[in-house]
Amino acid sequence: MNELARPPAASLTQEEAFARIRLLRSPNIGPVSYAMLLARFGTAVAALDALPDLGKRGGRQYRAAPADRIEREVDAVRRAGAKYLFHDQPDFPALLAEVDGAPPILTYRGDLSLASAPCVALVGARNASAAAVKLAREFGKGLAEAGFTVVSGLARGIDGAAHEGAFPRTIGVIASGIDIAYPPQHEALQERIASEGLLIAEQPPGTEPRGSHFPSRNRIIAGLASGTLVVEAAVKSGSLITARLAGEAGREVMAIPGSPLEARSHGCNHLIREGAVLVQSPEDVVELLTGFDGTPRSTFREPVSQFDFEPGEMAEAQPADIAALLTTAPVAIDELIRQSGESAAAVQLALLELEIAGRLERHAAGRVSLA
Amino acid sequence: MNELARPPAASLTQEEAFARIRLLRSPNIGPVSYAMLLARFGTAVAALDALPDLGKRGGRQYRAAPADRIEREVDAVRRAGAKYLFHDQPDFPALLAEVDGAPPILTYRGDLSLASAPCVALVGARNASAAAVKLAREFGKGLAEAGFTVVSGLARGIDGAAHEGAFPRTIGVIASGIDIAYPPQHEALQERIASEGLLIAEQPPGTEPRGSHFPSRNRIIAGLASGTLVVEAAVKSGSLITARLAGEAGREVMAIPGSPLEARSHGCNHLIREGAVLVQSPEDVVELLTGFDGTPRSTFREPVSQFDFEPGEMAEAQPADIAALLTTAPVAIDELIRQSGESAAAVQLALLELEIAGRLERHAAGRVSLA
User: Where's the DprA winged helix domain (chains A, B) (predicted)?
Assistant: First the structure.
């Protein structure tokens, strides 16, 4: 086993840190089942040992990711000059840790203390208007000067301008691995953020960004910040997903308004109409977020669509309540999915929860019953 | 006595109609004291008879306006092709009648049935941007096509464009007398509104518009409509007074957003930030106002500043609660004003209320006591 790139907290042995990475990278394990297994078995080492027995007789297969692949990952993280951060380490961003389905393991480069300062997320369209790009830069600058760390996603347009305005008080969260520059136009900006600010990645090194990674990346952006400001965005856009995630997490959702004659403003106007706080200046944001106590003034609560996430991707469904549907007579999992009206992922997660509690028995042909 | 230009309702004699006009035009009488006197004495004829005795021994002077001046007014209204409308006549707009301090007598030209349809007020800046003028015309057109009557103030910029878009379903409320065209650039528009739509004036004929008349005119605009939409306005503007009056009256307050980089949008953005509903299209307005039941979705409730009105002008203060300060020992009215912290107008109105209830005694040198 390689040494981990960053010495884990005193209570976290090298072996346990390695096991945690390996557990999270195992098939069919996401943040929710990871947390469930850690809670049930105490350590990732013990959870990995138990993994093959879970779901053994039919149902979902659980097997640990190959150890040599994890060794290569740890090595790649070190070569990228990056470090690991685990959810229960003191430096793990407190607000992010509160978010449902937040990634329990991150990789990062740069100044981690930036994530301990009050954070505000600035996001928006890639094809933003010149006026909005100017606003993003001004808001980035004004908020950094007011002591906030500006979080964004390193995309072209609004994201890039927000980072540039805020230097060096800025965090870039990327959808790729920590060692992959994306988009290509922002390679230099990403390197500058890593050296002067803070660069964060959830995916393992070597991961090229995929469409399905962006909602999970957006969850981290929204989760780090006490408020998310959408600078300019059309109605169907990733920025609105970030705003929904911020609202779902109980954070402030803010938007800069624009004329109805400008389609690129319609997303922001929609957010405001649905309860996001209208802001016109960095001072408006500072006033709103200073002393944020977990009770947002924003009333924006638009549900995050299931379709925003790919099943089995980093953002896992929450376990469904299906114990009531079970008896000691075996029943097909497909039947449980039909009867509960829940997604397959949510039902599988609920079965895993029952299984590690010793209440589930698995039978042939994908059938289950109460133990 | 001249005939009134319009035959009053069956229950309203020519003599009583004349007396009502005369009572309202009398010095120190505004809508609130007018209503108080009418309630106390049953008819304006009786109230006029009682007027000289009120406040006789010191305090405010109440004397009827000269009858010959009222005769000339009634004649001028007829020559302008206009008619009178009294607050208790069936055609008096129902929503306007509900507003505190609404004018109990109006003059009008045109199609009074337009005021019985659902009304929406469209207001905004005189020096509006070309884009906002275009929006005002489009909203006027779209709302008229949806069956709404569009109410505005005939000012240059937004008002004029709203009227033009809505023809013939539009009401112009002017701050001058019914026979005075203002602003001069809109003389033809005003004439067209009078002949195809509906033109309403609160001030007596011959009255040139004064700054102090505009807030009262704005109260009528807001009062006629179930909702007021501000299309474009700076922070300090008459349009925001109209919005405050609409909010105070429990009506919908709506605004079209704009970029923070455009100072002419800041008033609208401020309204939205404080609870006005953001609208982007005529359909948004139709959706909001259709079936308006008196419970607005807008939460905008910014107080109407006393400074928006000139003391003694058409918008009277509400009577203060000063009976508790009085005993049977005479006290100076100035002292009551000091002790109550109320405006002089509010205290005088409260004293009038006590006096017509027979509870007040007036003494020399402006002193009063309980009777």
Answer: 315-366
Does residue B154 surpass a pLDDT of 80?
yes
Amino acid residing at B93:
P
3-state secondary structure of A152: strand
Same-domain status, B221 and B334: no
Q: Are residues B220 and B366 in the same domain?
A: no
pLDDT tens for each residue of B181-201: 999 999 999 999 999 999 999
**Same domain for A329 and A260:** no
To test the contact with chain A by mutation, choose from B269, B278, B287, B298 the residue with the greatest count of A C-beta atoms within 10 A, namely B278
pLDDT tens digits, A323-350: 888 888 888 888 888 888 887 777 877 8
SS (H, E, C) A261-318: CCHHHHHHHHHHHCCCEECCCHHHHHHHHCCCCCCCCCCCCCCCCHHHCCCCCCCCCC
Tokens of B63: 């004397």
Tokens for A2? Answer: 């390689």
B257: chain A residues, CB-CB within 8 Å: 257-260, 265, 269, 272, 278
Q: What is the full DSSP assignment across A5-31?
A: SSPPPTTS-HHHHHHHHHHHTSTT--H
- Partner-chain contact A256 B259, CB within 8 Å: yes
Q: What are residue A198's DSSP bridge partners?
A: A110, A171
Q: Which of B269, B277, B281 sits opposite A260 (nearest CB)?
A: B281
Residue of A nearest to B278 (CA): A273
Q: Does residue A236 fall inside a structural domain?
A: yes
In the chain, the amino acid numbered B349 is: L
pLDDT(B292) > 80: yes
Let me know whether B201 and B345 are in one domain: no
Question: Of the ranges A288-302, B75-89, B183-197, which one carries the lowest mean pLDDT score?
Answer: A288-302
Better-predicted residue by pLDDT, B260 or A210: B260
**Counted domains in chain A:** 2
Domain shared by B120 and B222, yes or no = yes
Greater pLDDT, A73 or B27: A73
First to last CA, chain B: 38
Preferred mutation among A129, A235, A261 to probe B, highest tally of B CBs within 10 A:
A261
A258/B contact by beta carbon, under 8 A: yes
Q: Are residues B317 and B200 located together in one domain of the fold?
A: no
Q: What's the domain range around B316?
A: 311-370
Q: What is the overall mean pLDDT for chain A?
A: 89
B281 shares its domain with B315: no
